Here is the input.
Amino acid sequence: MIRKFVIPKELGDSIEVRLLQWCKAEGEMVNADEALLEFETDKAIVLVTASQAGVLRRRFFNDGDWMKPGDVAAWLSDQADEALPAADAVLDDTLLVTFDAT
Amino acid sequence: MSRLFFREALARAMAEEMARDPRVILMGQDIAEHGGSYAETRGLFERFGPSRVRNTPVAEAVTVGLAAGAAAAGLRPLAFITYLDFLMLGLDPLVNYAAKLRFKSAGQLTAPMVVKATAGAKGQGPTHAQSIEPWLMNVPGLTVLAPSTAGDAYGLLKSALRASGPVVYIDHKRLFPLGGTVPDDEQTIPIGSAALRRDGRHLTIVAHSYMSVVALEAAALLAASGIEAEVVDLRSLWPIDWQTLADSCRRTGHALFVEEGQEVCGVGAELAFGLRERVDGLRVARLGARRAPVSASPVLEAYTIPDAPRVAEAARRLLG
Amino acid sequence: MLELRVFEQALLRQPKPGFQLLSRGQEATAVGVCTVLAASDPLLCSGRSIGIALARGVPAGGLLAELIGKDGGPNRGRAGRAHVSMPSVGLYGAHGVVAGNLSVAAGVALAQQQLQSGAVTCCLFGDGACGAGALHETLNVAALWRLPLLLACDNNGYAVSTSVRDGLGVERIVDFALPFGIPARTVDATDVDAVVDAVAEAAAAIRAGGGPRFLDLRSVRLGPHSTLTKEERPAEEVESFAQSDPLRVYENRLRQQGLLDDAAWSAMQARVQARIAQAERFAADAPWPDPAEAVLDV
Here is the structure.
């Protein structure tokens, strides 16, 4: 199962956000309750924590890039060797995450 | 060039000017450790300390008065007013003292101060939503600025902090979520210069602050039906860049003035008269908020404040 | 003080004296404050500014010209009584809005603190300003930030026709300063020595870093509020003020101390009359401003 990590839309009135840093590299395992990445809105710094495990397979943005709520920022898969679809594929399954704003 | 949040552009301008000139001090509610009501002073307290970044009580009248007196006595204060609506409490020291100081002292005293206030309707109700720029444009002795992009926010705030008299610097709640490009090296934008945001030959749309963003959205709607709108962003509400406006209006022959504030005695009223004096045969129209206080209810607010479809419709009506 | 009194008499003799607020009875406040403060101590005041301006060092001729709207004074006729300023002698300015100078004075004091000038900023305001929110906001910030600010109420007991008793809810004006922990004194300001004493004490404390001070300088208003207001106080009351006329109080003291006799008093009056006559000539000769100046320095 391949899941997409989507930049949350429930961020109040944010229109665009800046990726501060990825906490995991491509190929790395992300366990439940581990930090995945940190981004900044115009008001706050948001830490995104995975609620379910997966291997981080593809990161679509780099540190310092700007993203919009609703953008797909990454793909994660249950198994490290699952075949990935083409880069422009639209996935149905979304990674569950929690996020903390400070 | 870097892409920054609107608030970062402001913080950078302030940090640069404070480093450059020890007379620049900041005062306002929640600007010290809290980092500002819009996170726009983050890092400044830590860098410049409590005597240059001062929290004030919730008392806009004395805050503006402090800025006026400190400016008269040789500092360059920047006073923060969280909501433009509350500048009304500070109008006496701003209008009756600061704006008149150079004149009434015959040049012996001046008040080089900046009042930064955030305007605009965004779900917070009738006394947290107003755009009263015309009240300020009307006062001899006041400079009034209103950026619509992060880059302009940066360059205009730097100029404001170097001005020789009182400046009211007005930004907008809806500009803060936006990012924008800011030059990497220090640059100022001159006071009194408008910016051409979009070329177009059929009509000129003149706007400022968040309505410049809306005007560009309207221009995209109009372009889809073959109408090319030129969009001019005022940036400086007083002094007005009549030359840039008139040049555009001579090319297009039609001018639509868009503002978020009231139409009655609004920015558009001043522009319409001034441009008809300068451009023969210019056809003009204005669009502002409907004549009512702005409710916090999203449905009522949206009905009251101009949006891109309404701007586009007004443009079509103007063109007949 | 005599000069202030004679000056205002000369002002009233002008063909068109204009809308003036006179200082008769309050000369000790002006002279007392200006005796203590240095020229580098910024002084701000209200619209009852004439005595203060003169005591501060604005030349009499220039001041008279300014008051009637002519060029030749510190503000080229643009300010008049309500806004006269001459920072070079330490008069940061009068201001025509009641209580309008209070927060401004706090800002001037803030600048002195920031620039570490050691100066005392003094704001003179009437009892009529004490009901304004501006006073309370200013007291609050002055206390919070320990501003080097002397707030001195030039208290003549009346705001136009409203007595202090009818206009203010406190027993004593110094009570306004108490909640903010600002040391305050009530002073008999019909006695110039008492004013000098109190201002000197307050200024010294402020210069030593003690934060703001508040004085209630109680004097008498010998005439009506302005040249356009009629006297409505009972005649007996106004007559009784003559006893408290600061000129008379000081003259009597100097005579008692053997420092003044009839000859010296006459000589002094003659000198003052001569100086004021010179001021009247200066103002008469001063030009009206060029109309084009109406739009300069905006």
